[in-house]
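Could you help me review a protein record that somebody else here produced? This is what I was given.
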Amino acid sequence: MKIVEVKVMNKHGLHARPAVKFVQLASNFKSKITVCKGGSCADAKNILKVLSLGVDCGDNITLKVEGDDEEEALKQLTHLLQVVLPSEDRE
């Protein structure tokens, strides 16, 4: 099992579209992936559970990944969380 703390850099945190991208990416892996904020944890492959964590920009979250493809899953998910995604606002 790999455990890593990541600072979320996307200005929208893990809400709406960024959360969907995160869950879709997590779902591509066979490993069990858990995301935690504070004392709450959620299955990273379940959009409603991820959204319920209320992850905002600048929050530190913990990723726990266990399985045959844990190294690659952790690498890709960490990259997604640390990249500042362009704003998708329609201003």
Remarks:
- The two ends are 43 Å apart (CA to CA).
- Confidence is low (pLDDT under 50) at residues 87-91.
- The chain has one domain: 2-82.
